[in-house]
């Protein structure tokens, strides 16, 4: 059999090593049915019975094959082993068997010696097994494949590194001779796995699975390797395949349960599957105490103390104890799990039973000590821990013992540093024990997330209770918590308590977004997680979003009414009320908190708990201090002092005593007694907890109350002297920066950096400090020197930013390209850094006007960020929000660039992609809506704005755009409603007012603008001096035909950073065309002016052109926009010189040819230049091209001017119908367009329809604010022709009142109209 059926022997060996004893018997029995009573099979059957403690049955089986030559040695050894396992050992029989074994050994064959080696290996006697197998190989002539395979396995499992290296050679030797040798394939795979080459190991196992399709051990190994590679999906797939192949596969079901517990956190389903597993073991391994306990241990450690799971796992442990009641390990496990269930008394009984069975059991002793500590029996616990400390040298350091010592230290109120150091040591020892262990069942058992969660909770007792400010060095306790929680959250994402604690730690570290991401993970998996809702409320409170804070509190309460019994609920509620100014309600809330059991006075016993769980001393102190502060703020000073005194009495000689002292100092400070506050804080010595916080508070008092910068810095100097570390050095350096002494700050930072050259935070701070002090050259030199010594990539990023700020674009580009030139790496941190560098590189290109290069860098960044986002959710879940924000920023920048180049469709695509990453980013939503508006996709624009206003109903920009949209849809009342709504709330919202002026012009209601300008003036007495107000006033004057007044107001806004550029642009427009004529138009060219008037007009045009030339120098070009260039070319044309016009024409032509899309302003410029050069047909072709385009609000002015110019051309050609159509198009988009009405009047006049002409001129006169005498003349003339003589006389008087010498007004119209009336 052994020679012909290699898989059977391989399976028997595998199951023996896995301690699946009934599986060994089942495989042997199946093979016996197939091959008959083979002695080797009979041996394994008997050995399997012995391992199940069915000694008499096993010995009978072995006795029957005792004389078979090939198994005689191993059978004799197995019989001796069975006798020694008996309760009453038959010494005589053992001696006889020993004598027989020695006799048989002399004449044994190589096969007999091989099977003896096999038996010795399975019983854990590796050295003896190695001796036997070497002898077997020697007897076989120095070459035996099965002997070499066994030797490889013996070395592999011996636990000794020097033999481990040899194991690989033995397996390699066998596989080179027989590539499909199953035992060698599994052995080589296991060897590679132990060398952490899981991919190579999986390749070998895949060969085994393919070569032996029905071989279950190979599939089991494959599952484990897939898990070691952290590929849960493939692991589960293989497990399901295994269960299809063999429904009683315990390992497959175990891994599926682990996946449900660790990845999904679905405890209900896991409990059901564990029930199935228990039934499976009851049927297929009923006598296997080891398997019951082993599986139970893993599940209990990752179940977050879920009572349903713990009931199931404890059942398994009880099964193990039922099978082997003398095993102390099983009783220890029972004790541990009962303690997890909160049954401390039962747990102690189990531990005492374990101690009875094994007096040296350290596990049992640590369990008893844990109970003593929790029960307040500190003296007994200390005595036991001292004993364990003495024997620790022999047993090695234990994370459990160190943790218990930390607990004792805290309960004895020892200095915080001492306790935290013990916790640090415990966590270090714990994680060292996991080193090199692949992800799998053993890893989860040893990792023991439950223990680590307890450790984090212990750390948090010594962490700050309020979030750290931006730029502050991380608190060491919080940093350690982060280091402990990170592997838990990666390995066991289903453990929501881990994510909740991580969120709490991130929040206290000031990393609010990351905290929210972790909390969202909790709430996505379990919306009823009340603690997560409470922490979310705390975060919103910290962010100042009191409404959402209250909502989160109510959500937590709705899911769990017991939340009301938790002090934290009342604390958050009270703080929210305090922030909202509801002080009476705040006092009532805190009084309710004070009335909770265990708040005013500590519970007598630790076992006595309130419904919400045990109350921490931190929460108790917080209630006292918040109530005292609330009383103080409501003026109840006596009550505040009384509560504070109660706090002093209650927490005297506890770890929280100093916190009360600091709060008391705050109370004194509020009363104005600065000296008493300082006196209290000075009494806090360096040995006491909160010393750092006390010195920080003192420093704050010196700076803000005493205004003494020296004493402020001295507090931090004292900290740095008493606690010399990079953290205190950072605090001292930051303090010097705060009091504007950067040189000293840099000196401190540099000293700290010398001690810790790899401290990235310090290196960055030095560079930033130099930049803040404008020592740019020194900062550049520092960064370059730091990079030469192997600085991190983020320093290159900082240097790149600095060079960009200094406009050294080439140097910045070079620096960033060097940072990006490295070997391709798939490390997540490298990809994240590269994405940031590419974004900065794109910015450098954009500033350097290399738009194509900028777009290319952004495209690369976008692709890289997509890769990052695929992996970050698994590898760094707390960084998801930040990475999504970066992805949003990249897409937004791409969209912005496309938008400036008028590639609106591409821009929309990128903005939509940005919203995939940040669905509630109001800035992106607004820009997307703006693009839809530009493309006249009004419904899409409205949909986007409605969504935005649902998220932020006070978004002013969205309201402005909604009003704009309503106007575009012709819903003027709705547009007005939105503006009134906004301007009633903020009359001085000048951005909205400017848009309103433009919309009123387009709606033909310019006369209503004055009301809103008056409203703004009433709201702020300084409005007439405000650049925004002057800009809006300038627009109004310009639109109603008062260019000089408009220039005056724009000039007052000209120097402003927000309004200046727009104002200058408008001033240039007015200088180029003060009378709002159609530049290049021929219809209204003045042929009847005298030479003096013509010369005067030419001179004023030249002066205006020179003014425009000066102004254009003040106009700054904007990225990706050609507006500045177009205005520059128009200024050139304004000189009316033929040479300049030709220059302008070629510049406009170049712009048109370089634009990716139709450039309306440039095309209009080409047409205007042609008209000025009297090349009308060419101009007409360009204008027709514009007329065919779809109108958009971005180019609205240019569209209007082009339609007017083309209308002018058609009028001169006598094509009045075509001109009429264009002019109506103008009026559709601008109902105040004077020129369009003037042209329409001209057409009607030519057609001798004087009444219609008069109506059009009347509107032109009205919308020109009755300022233009030419239009007044035409209107009076057409009134006269239409026989409206009185109206004609009225208009004549109005024109002559302002322009008394206006030519021919009296002679042609006034006198004739009077004569006609008399007649």
Description of the structure:
This protein is mostly helical. The chain has a domain at about 800-900. The chain contains 70 helices and no strands. Helix 17 (about 290-300) crosses helix 25, helix 37 (about 675-680) packs antiparallel against helix 38 (about 690-705) and helix 54 runs parallel beside helix 56. The termini are far apart.
- Amount of beta strand: under 5%
Count of individual beta strands: 0
Pick out the low-confidence regions.
604-612
Distance between the termini: 141 Å
Largest sheet: none
Q: What structural category arises from helix and sheet content?
A: mainly alpha
Secondary structure tally, helices: 70
Radius of gyration: 44 Å
Give the overall average pLDDT: 84
**Oligomeric grouping of the chains:** single chain
What would you call the shape? Answer: elongated
Roughly what percent helix?
over 70%
Which SSEs are present, and which pair or pack?
Blueprint: H1 6-17, H2 21-35, H3 39-51, H4 55-64, H5 72-85, H6 91-107, H7 110-122, H8 126-139, H9 145-156, H10 161-177, H11 182-194, H12 198-211, H13 216-228, H14 232-245, H15 250-264, H16 267-284, H17 289-301, H18 307-323, H19 328-340, H20 344-357, H21 362-374, H22 378-395, H23 399-411, H24 416-432, H25 441-447, H26 449-460, H27 476-491, H28 496-508, H29 512-525, H30 530-543, H31 546-559, H32 567-579, H33 583-594, H34 617-633, H35 637-650, H36 657-670, H37 674-682, H38 691-704, H39 709-722, H40 726-738, H41 742-755, H42 760-772, H43 776-788, H44 793-805, H45 809-820, H46 828-847, H47 851-875, H48 880-900, H49 904-917, H50 922-934, H51 938-951, H52 956-968, H53 972-985, H54 990-1003, H55 1009-1019, H56 1027-1039, H57 1043-1053, H58 1060-1072, H59 1091-1114, H60 1123-1133, H61 1138-1154, H62 1160-1172, H63 1176-1187, H64 1196-1212, H65 1216-1229, H66 1234-1246, H67 1250-1263, H68 1269-1281, H69 1285-1298, H70 1305-1318
């Amino acid at each position: 059999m052994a020679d012909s059926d290699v898989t059977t022997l391989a399976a028997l060996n595998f199951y023996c090593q896995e301690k699946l004893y009934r599986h060994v018997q089942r495989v042997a029995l199946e093979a016996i049915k197939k091959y008959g009573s083979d002695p080797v099979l009979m041996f394994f059957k008997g050995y399997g019975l012995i391992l199940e403690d069915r000694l008499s049955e096993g010995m009978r089986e072995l006795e029957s094959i005792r004389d078979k030559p090939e198994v005689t040695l191993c059978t004799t050894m197995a019989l001796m082993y069975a006798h020694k396992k008996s309760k009453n050992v038959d010494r005589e029989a053992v001696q006889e068997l020993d004598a027989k074994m020695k006799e048989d050994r002399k004449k044994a064959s190589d096969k007999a010696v091989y099977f003896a080696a096999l038996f010795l290996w399975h019983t854990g006697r590796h050295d003896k097994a190695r001796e036997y197998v070497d002898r077997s190989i020697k007897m076989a002539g120095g070459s035996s494949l099965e002997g070499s395979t066994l030797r490889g396995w013996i070395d592999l499992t011996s636990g000794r590194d020097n033999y481990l290296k040899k194991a690989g050679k033995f397996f390699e030797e066998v596989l080179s001779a027989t590539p499909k040798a199953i035992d060698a394939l599994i052995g080589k795979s296991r060897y590679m796995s132990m060398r952490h080459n899981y991919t190579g190991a999986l390749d070998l196992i895949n060969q085994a699975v393919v070569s032996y399709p029905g071989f279950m051990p190979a599939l089991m190994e494959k599952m484990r390797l897939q898990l070691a590679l952290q590929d849960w999906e493939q692991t589960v797939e293989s497990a399901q395949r295994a269960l299809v192949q063999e429904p009683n596969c315990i390992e497959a079901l175990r891994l599926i349960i682990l996946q449900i517990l660790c990845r999904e956190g679905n405890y209900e389903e896991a409990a059901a599957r564990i029930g199935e597993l228990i039934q499976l073991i009851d049927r297929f391994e009923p006598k296997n105490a080891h398997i019951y306990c082993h599986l139970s241990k893993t599940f209990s450690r990752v179940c977050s103390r879920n009572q349903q799971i713990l009931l199931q796992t404890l059942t398994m442990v009880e099964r193990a104890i039922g099978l082997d009641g003398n095993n102390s390990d099983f009783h220890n496990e029972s004790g541990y799990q009962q303690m997890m269930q909160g049954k401390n008394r039962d747990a102690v009984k189990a531990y005492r039973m374990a101690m009875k069975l094994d007096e040296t059991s350290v596990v049992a002793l640590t369990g008893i000590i844990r109970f003593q500590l929790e029960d307040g029996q500190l003296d007994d616990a200390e005595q036991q821990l001292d004993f364990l400390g003495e024997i620790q040298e022999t047993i090695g350091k234990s994370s459990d013992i160190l943790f218990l010592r930390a607990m004792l230290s805290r309960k004895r109120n020892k200095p915080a540093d001492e306790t935290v150091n013990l916790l640090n040591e415990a966590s270090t020892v714990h994680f060292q024990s996991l080193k090199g262990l692949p992800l799998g069942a053993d890893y989860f058992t040893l990792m023991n997330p439950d223990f680590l969660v307890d450790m984090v909770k212990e750390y948090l007792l010594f962490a700050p209770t309020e979030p750290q400010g931006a730029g502050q060095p991380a608190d060491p306790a919080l940093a350690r918590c982060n280091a402990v929680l990170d592997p838990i959250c990666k390995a066991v994402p289903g453990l929501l308590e881990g994510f909740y604690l991580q969120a709490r730690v991130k929040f206290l570290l000031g990393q609010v977004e990351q905290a929210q991401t972790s909390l969202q993970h909790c709430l996505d998996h379990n919306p009823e997680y009340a603690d997560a809702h409470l922490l979310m409320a705390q975060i919103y409170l910290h962010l100042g979003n009191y409404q959402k804070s209250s909502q989160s509190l109510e959500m937590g309460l709705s899911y769990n009414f017991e939340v009301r019994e938790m002090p934290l609920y009342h604390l958050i509620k009270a703080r929210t009320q305090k922030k909202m100014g509801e002080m009476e309600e705040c006092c009532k809330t805190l009084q309710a908190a004070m009335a909770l059991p265990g708040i005013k006075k500590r519970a007598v016993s630790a076992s006595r708990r309130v419904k919400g769980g045990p109350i921490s001393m931190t929460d108790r102190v917080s209630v006292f201090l918040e109530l005292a502060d609330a009383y103080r703020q409501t003026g109840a000073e006596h009550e505040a002092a009384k509560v504070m005194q109660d706090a002093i009495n209650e927490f005297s000689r506890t770890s929280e005593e100093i916190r009360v002292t600091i709060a008391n100092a705050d109370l004194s400070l509020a009363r104005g007694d600065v000296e008493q506050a300082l006196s209290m804080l000075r009494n806090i010595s360096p040995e006491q907890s909160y010393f750092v916080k006390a010195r920080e508070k003192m420093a704050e008092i010196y700076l803000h109350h005493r205004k003494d910068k020296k004493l402020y810095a001295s507090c931090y100097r004292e900290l740095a002297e008493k606690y010399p570390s990079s953290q205190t050095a950072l605090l001292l350096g930051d303090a010097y920066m705060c009091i504007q002494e950067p040189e000293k700050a840099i000196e401190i930072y540099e000293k700290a950096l010398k001690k810790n050259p790899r401290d990235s935070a310090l290196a960055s701070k030095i560079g930033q400090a130099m930049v803040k002090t404008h020592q740019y050259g020194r900062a550049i030199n520092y960064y370059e020197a730091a990079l030469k010594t192997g600085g991190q990539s983020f320093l290159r990023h900082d240097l790149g930013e600095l060079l960009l700020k200094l406009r050294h674009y080439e140097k910045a580009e070079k620096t960033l390209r060097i940072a990006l030139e490295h070997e391709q790496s798939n490390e997540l941190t490298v990809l994240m850094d590269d994405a940031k560098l590419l974004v900065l590189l794109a910015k450098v290109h954009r500033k350097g006007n290399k738009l194509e290069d900028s777009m290319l860098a952004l495209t690369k960044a976008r692709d890289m960020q997509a890769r990052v986002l695929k992996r970050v959710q698994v590898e760094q879940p707390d960084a998801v929000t930040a990475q999504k924000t970066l992805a949003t920023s990249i897409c937004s920048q791409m969209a912005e660039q496309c938008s400036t180049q008028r590639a609106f469709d591409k821009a929309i695509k990128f903005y939509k992609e940005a919203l995939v990453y940040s669905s509630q980013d109001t800035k992106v939503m607004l820009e997307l809506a703006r693009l839809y508006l530009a493309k006249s996709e009004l419904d899409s624009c409205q949909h986007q704005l409605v969504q935005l206003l649902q998220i932020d109903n006070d978004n002013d920009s969205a309201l402005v755009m909604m009003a704009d949209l309503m106007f575009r849809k012709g819903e003027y009342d709705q547009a007005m409603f939105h503006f009134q709504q906004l301007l009633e709330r903020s009359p001085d919202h000048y951005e909205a007012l400017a848009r309103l002026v433009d919309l009123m012009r387009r709606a033909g209601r310019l006369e209503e603008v004055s009301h809103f300008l008056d409203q703004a003036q009433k709201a702020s007495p300084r409005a007439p001096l405000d650049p925004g107000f002057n800009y809006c006033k300038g627009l109004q004057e310009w639109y109603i035909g008062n260019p000089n007044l408009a220039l005056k107001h724009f000039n007052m806004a000209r120097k402003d950073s927000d309004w200046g550029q727009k104002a200058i642009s408008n001033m240039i427009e007015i200088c180029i065309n003060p009378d709002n004529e159609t530049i290049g138009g021929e219809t209204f060219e003045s042929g009847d002016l005298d030479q003096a008037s013509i010369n005067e007009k030419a001179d004023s045009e030249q002066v205006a052109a020179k003014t425009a030339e000066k102004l254009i120098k003040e106009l700054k070009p904007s990225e990706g926009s050609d507006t500045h260039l177009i205005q520059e070319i128009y200024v050139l044309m304004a000189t009316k010189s033929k040479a300049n016009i030709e220059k302008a024409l070629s510049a406009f032509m170049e712009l048109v040819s370089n634009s990716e899309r139709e450039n309306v302003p440039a095309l209009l410029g080409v047409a205007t230049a042609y008209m000025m050069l009297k090349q009308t047909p060419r101009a007409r072709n360009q204008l027709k091209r514009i007329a065919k385009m779809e109108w958009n609000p971005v180019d609205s002015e240019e569209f209007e001017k082009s339609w007017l110019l083309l209308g002018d051309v058609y009028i001169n050609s006598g094509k009045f119908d075509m001109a009429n159509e264009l002019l109506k198009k103008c009026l559709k988009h601008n109902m105040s367009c004077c020129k369009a009405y003037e042209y329409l009047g001209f057409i009607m006049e030519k057609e001798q329809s004087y009444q219609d002409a008069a109506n059009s001129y009347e509107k032109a006169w009205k919308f020109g604010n009755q300022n233009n005498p030419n239009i007044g003349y035409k209107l009076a003339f057409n009134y006269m022709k239409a026989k409206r003589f009185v109206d004609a006389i009225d208009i004549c008087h109005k024109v002559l009142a302002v322009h008394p010498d206006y030519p021919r007004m009296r002679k042609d119209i006034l006198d004739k109209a009077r004569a006609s009336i008399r007649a």
